[in-house]
Specification:
Distance between the termini: 33 Å
Number of helices: 33
Helix content: 55-70%
Shape: globular
Structural class: mainly alpha
Strand order of the largest sheet: 4-3-5-7-6
Radius of gyration: 28 Å
Largest sheet: 5 strands, mixed
Number of strands: 7
Strand content: under 5%
Number of domains: 3
Length: about 725
C-alpha cells in the first residue's frame, strides 16, 4: 500500500457604480467624499488594490499547494514509476490518457487511439472521449506538444502545474464573488484567507491532482461569480450580454471536465427555481440561466459523441419542464397570498410531473441505464428500503459517500468560519422569509412597506441566490462527505460577505436600536480586520511548520509489482484485479485491463462484479471461466482486500460479494435468514495453498508482501 514516510536526511473589481449610493464611494474610515472626482479616484484606487490583492492571493495559493505536494512526496526526487503510482485510483486512469497522447507518434494517432480504445476494457473497443471527461487531458497534451517547452519542463510537471494554476483561478473567483456581494474587497481577502486556513476541508488538490473535481470546481466558481454579477440591478445591456457569455463559457467548461456536472447544476437549477417562484429573482435572467445550462450540457453531449447519460440527465428534463410549465401558467405571479400559494403548489407539481415524464421517456427511448446505480445508491442511503445490490452497497460502504463527520465542524469553527457562517445564515434566512412573504402577499401598501423596512433589509437578488445556493449545497455536503468541497468553499464566500455587509450590520444595529450610518461603516471594516488578524496570528505559525515538514513517497511493493509487469509480461497481456490497482497498472505499464474505476457504465459495473468473484466463495473452475471470458492472462490478488480490516463486517468487499451471491458472511455476527453457506471456500485464500484443483488453472508467477500474481492456463 502507498504510504508517506518522514524524509531521510542522507538521500541525496470593487462594487460597480450601480450599487446603492449608501454603499458606494465610502472610505474605510466611514467618511463619504464630498468631491465626485475624489470619489471616482477612490473607486479606481480601491479596484486596483483589490485586484492586485486577488491575483496575489491566487498565485500564493497555487505556490502553497504545489509546495505541499512536493514536500509530501519529494516529487522532484522520486522515479517516474513512483510519480505515476502517486496518482492513485481513478486519478491514474485519467492521467494515463494524457501520457498516451504525449507518447503517440502524432496528435491524430493519439486521438484515434482514444476514439478506438481496446486497452482500457479487454475484448471490447470503447470511445474514451464519449465515456469519460478527458478533453482536458487531450487539450493539455496537444498544448505540451506544440509549445517549445519540452526541453525545460517534463510532461508530468506541465500537467500538475496546470492544476495548481487552476487553484489560483479558483481563489480569485471566490474572492471576486465575495467582493461583489459585499461591495468591498476586504470581504474577498477574508474569503481567500478562510479558504487557505481551512484547506483540509476546502480542497484536496495536493494529493488527488488529476481528479475531475479539481478541474471543474474553478470553472464552477467563475460561473457563480458571473451569476452574482448578472443578478445585480441596473446592468447595461452590453454588460448583461458579456456576463451571460462568461456564464455560458464557465458552465460549458465545468460540464466538460466533470461527469457529475449534471447533478451539481440540477441543484443550482433548483435554487433558481425556488427564488423565481418566490419572486426574488428577475424572471428574464433566470430563463437565460436555464437556457445556458441546457445549451452548455448539449454542447458537451455533442463533443462526447452524443453520450446518452447526458441526454437522459435530470437537469435537462427539469429545465425544459420549468420552461413549459411557465408557458402554461402565465399568471403565476398575480393575486393575493392564498391565490399565489395555490398557483405555486400547482406549478411545483406540474414541473415535477413533467420532469419525471420527460426523463422516463428519454431513458426508455435511449434504453439508458448508465446512471441507475446512482439512484439505487440514493434510494438505499435515504432509507427507502435495504438493498443487496452490489454497486449500491459499494458506494454506501465508502466513507466518502457517508454523512459529513462532526469533526469537520470543529475544524471549521477553529478558524471562526463556521460561527460566522451560522450567524450570517440565520440572519439572512429570516430576512429571506420576510421578503418572500411580502412578495407572495403582493402588498403594495406604503405604510406596511415602511414598517417592514424599519426592522428588516431588502434582500438583493445576488444575496438571495447566494443564500439558497449555500443551503442546498450544504444539504448535499451533510448527506455525502465527498461533496463537501462544493459547500465549504462557498461557505468562505458567504461568511465573509455577511461579515463585511453594511446591510447585515444595519439590520443588527437597528434591532439593538443603535443604528447610525457612521457606526455601521466602522463595524463593517473593523470586525473583518480583527478577524483577519486573529486568523493570521493563530494559523501563520502552523502553515510555516506545515511547509517545513518534509516527507517522502514510499510504496516499494507496488513499485516492485509494476517493474515486474513491465519486465516479465508481453505488451498485449490482459490483467484482472481491483479497479483501483488496475488504473495504476494501465498508467505504469500500458497493459490491457479487464475493468477500471470509471464506474458510469452498466456493462463495466457488471464486469467488475464478475471480476471481483476472485474475492468471493467460488470454485476455481467458475473463477477461471469468468476471467477467461474477459480475455484475462494474469490476475492480481491483494492481501489488503482478501483479509480486509479497514471496514467493519458487512462492508468489507468480501461481505458485499457474499451477500450478493446469497452466501453467509465470515466472522461473528448476524446474517439475513435466507443466506446460505457456500459450497466452496474463499478463492483468494484457498488459491495460496497450491492445491491441484487450483494449480490446473492458475500458476503463481509473482508475489511480495502485498500482491500475488497468477498466470491463467490457456486450456479449460
Amino acid at each position: 500500500m502507498t504510504t508517506i514516510r518522514q524524509r531521510r536526511v542522507g538521500k541525496g473589481t470593487e462594487a460597480a457604480e450601480d450599487q446603492p449610493s449608501e454603499e458606494t464611494n465610502v472610505k474605510p474610515d466611514g467618511k463619504i467624499p464630498s468631491d465626485p472626482t475624489g470619489g471616482k479616484l477612490w473607486n479606481i484606487l480601491s479596484i486596483t488594490v483589490g485586484g492586485i490583492v486577488a491575483i496575489s492571493l491566487g498565485l500564493l495559493t497555487s505556490v502553497y499547494v504545489a509546495t505541499l505536494h512536493e514536500n509530501d512526496l519529494w516529487f522532484s526526487n522520486i522515479k517516474e514509476v513512483e510519480r505515476e503510482i502517486s496518482f492513485r485510483t481513478e486519478c491514474g486512469l485519467y492521467y494515463s490518457y494524457y501520457k498516451q497522447m504525449i507518447q503517440a507518434a502524432s496528435i491524430q494517432q493519439g486521438l484515434h487511439g482514444l476514439v478506438y480504445d481496446n486497452k482500457t476494457e479487454s475484448v471490447r473497443t470503447i470511445n474514451i472521449l464519449e465515456r469519460m471527461n478527458v478533453y482536458q487531458e487531450v487539450f493539455l497534451s496537444i498544448l505540451y506538444r506544440i509549445l517549445p517547452i519540452q526541453q525545460y519542463l517534463e510532461p508530468v510537471y506541465f500537467y500538475i502545474y496546470t492544476l495548481f494554476g487552476l487553484q489560483a483561478v479558483y481563489v480569485i473567483a471566490l474572492y471576486v464573488t465575495s467582493w461583489l456581494l459585499s461591495g468591498t474587497w476586504l470581504s474577498g481577502l477574508l474569503a481567500a484567507c478562510w479558504y487557505i486556513t481551512n484547506r483540509v476541508d476546502t480542497t484536496r488538490v495536493e494529493f488527488t491532482i488529476p481528479l475531475r473535481e479539481n478541474w471543474a470546481l474553478p470553472f464552477f466558481a467563475v460561473q457563480i461569480a458571473a451569476i452574482t454579477y448578472l443578478l445585480r440591478t441596473h446592468l447595461q445591456p452590453v454588460q448583461e450580454r458579456l456576463t451571460l457569455m462568461v456564464v455560458f463559457i464557465a458552465t460549458f467548461l465545468f460540464s466538460l471536465t466533470w461527469q457529475f456536472n449534471q447533478f451539481m447544476m440540477l441543484i443550482q437549477a433548483l435554487a433558481l427555481f425556488i427564488l423565481d417562484c418566490l419572486d426574488m429573482l428577475p424572471t428574464a435572467k433566470v430563463t437565460w440561466l436555464y437556457i445556458i445550462q441546457i445549451s452548455g450540457l448539449l454542447l458537451v453531449c455533442v463533443l462526447q459523441f452524443f453520450n446518452s447519460m447526458i441526454l437522459g440527465s435530470l437537469l435537462i428534463s427539469f429545465n425544459v419542464s420549468v420552461l413549459i410549465a411557465r408557458t402554461i401558467q402565465k399568471n403565476l405571479k398575480k393575486g393575493g397570498l392564498l391565490n399565489r400559494l395555490g398557483k405555486l403548489i400547482l406549478h411545483v407539481l406540474l414541473v415535477l410531473c413533467l420532469t419525471l415524464l420527460i426523463n422516463k421517456s428519454i431513458k426508455k427511448i435511449l434504453s439508458l441505464e448508465s446512471d441507475e446505480h446512482i439512484f439505487k445508491f440514493l434510494k438505499a442511503k435515504f432509507g427507502f428500503g435495504a438493498t443487496r445490490d452490489f454497486d449500491a452497497n459499494l458506494y454506501l460502504c465508502e466513507e466518502a459517500f457517508g454523512l459529513l463527520p462532526l469533526n469537520t465542524f470543529s475544524r471549521l469553527s477553529s478558524t471562526l468560519l463556521f460561527y460566522v457562517y451560522g450567524f450570517v445564515l440565520f440572519l439572512l434566512t429570516i430576512a429571506a422569509v420576510i421578503v418572500a412573504f411580502r412578495n407572495l402577499s403582493g402588498s403594495n401598501q406604503v405604510q406596511l412597506k415602511e414598517k417592514a423596512e424599519a426592522y428588516t433589509v431588502t434582500l438583493k437578488p445576488d444575496a438571495a441566490y447566494s443564500l439558497v445556493h449555500t443551503v442546498l449545497f450544504g444539504c448535499l455536503a451533510l448527506s455525502t462527505m465527498r461533496m463537501k468541497y462544493l459547500w465549504t468553499s462557498h461557505m468562505c464566500v458567504f461568511a465573509s460577505f455577511g461579515l463585511c455587509s453594511a446591510e447585515v450590520w444595519k439590520l443588527i444595529l437597528k434591532c439593538l436600536h443603535l443604528y447610525t450610518s457612521q457606526r455601521t461603516q466602522v463595524i463593517k471594516y473593523s470586525i473583518p480586520i480583527i478577524t483577519l488578524l486573529y486568523i493570521s496570528f493563530k494559523f501563520w505559525p502552523g502553515i510555516m511548520d506545515e511547509l517545513s515538514e518534509l516527507r517522502e513517497f514510499y510504496d516499494p511493493d507496488t513499485v516492485e509489482l509494476m517493474n515486474w509487469i513491465k519486465s516479465n509480461t508481453p505488451n498485449t497481456a490482459v490483467f484482472a484485479g481491483s479497479m483501483q490497482l488496475l488504473a495504476g497498472v494501465k498508467l505504469c505499464t500500458g497493459r490491457t485491463l479487464t475493468n477500471h474505476p470509471h464506474y458510469e457504465d452498466k456493462n463495466l459495473r457488471e464486469r467488475t462484479k464478475q471480476i471481483y468473484q476472485i474475492y468471493a466463495k467460488r470454485s476455481p473452475g467458475d473463477v477461471y471461466g469468468i476471467l477467461r471470458s474477459f480475455g484475462t492472462d494474469y490476475v492480481i490478488l491483494e492481501d489488503s482486500i482478501c483479509y480486509e480490516r479497514r471496514h467493519s463486517r458487512g462492508c468489507r468487499l468480501r461481505d458485499l460479494l457474499d451477500v450478493a451471491n446469497g452466501h453467509i458472511m465470515d466472522g461473528l455476527g448476524e446474517n439475513e435468514p435466507d443466506l446460505k453457506p457456500s459450497l466452496y471456500p474463499r478463492f483468494c485464500e484457498e488459491i495460496k495453498k497450491n492445491l491441484p484443483s487450483y494449480t490446473m488453472y492458475f500458476t503463481r508467477v509473482f508475489q511480495n508482501k502485498t500482491f500475488h500474481v497468477y498466470k491463467l492456463a490457456k486450456h479449460k
